Amino acid sequence: MLSPLGQGQGDALAFLWALVGLLVLLAVSRWALNPFFALPARTRAREVLTAGALLVVLGAALLMDAVGLSMAMGAFLAGVMLSSSSYRHQIESDIEPFRGLLMGLFFLAVGMSLDLAVVAAEWRQVLSLLVAFTIAKGIVVYGVARLLGTSNRRALHRTSMFLQGGEFAFVLYAAAASGGVIYARKTRCLPQS
């Protein structure tokens, strides 16, 4: 059994590794991404640039996994990195035909990871948390809009437009689960004999 000091050192080391991983991605985004995409751009082959973009996404996901963060966080950060690249318009036009398919696969994977038995068993808690999330997000969006000088009518309009949760929540939940902040509840499908 670890002593509290040993556990604290382990947490500090895990935090340090995660920070190093994020700094590596930041450095790659800042100094290496444009030179990397300059090579496939010279070939003028769309497939090579698309393969380069997929390589960046896979590399970022694997790096985040290696430093103890979720692969979904790495994929999200890779998307942010690609959107800041000077080749973003070319990458976006090359990936456009696959966009619907990739979005469908993402939501299919999320849906398949959902345990409907837990949702059915805890439907009251799910609905109450949904209402609490919607109210809290509405208050924050409205407050920020008003703080930035938006009229009451436009602040209410923005609030109504941004009440729903986004895809990034799945990234945050995966990171929280892998970090032990939240725990997944599972049900048994088959009775024990």
Overview of this protein structure:
The chain is mainly α and 193 residues long. The chain has two domains: 1-113, no CATH class; 115-193, no CATH class. 79% of the residues lie in helices and 0% in strands. It is built from eight helices and no strands. The two termini are 33 Å apart.
Short description:
This protein folds into 2 domains: 1-113, no CATH class; 115-193, no CATH class.
Indicate the low-confidence ranges by residue numbers. 1-5
Largest sheet features? none
Helical content stands at over 70%
Distance between the termini: 33 Å
Question: What structural keywords apply?
Answer:
single chain; 193 residues; mainly alpha; 2 domains; 8 helices; 0% strand; globular
How would you summarize the topology of this molecule?
Layout: H1 4-43, H2 46-66, H3 71-83, H4 88-113, H5 116-121, H6 123-147, H7 152-161, H8 168-178
Helix pairs in contact: 1-2, 1-3, 2-3, 2-4, 6-7
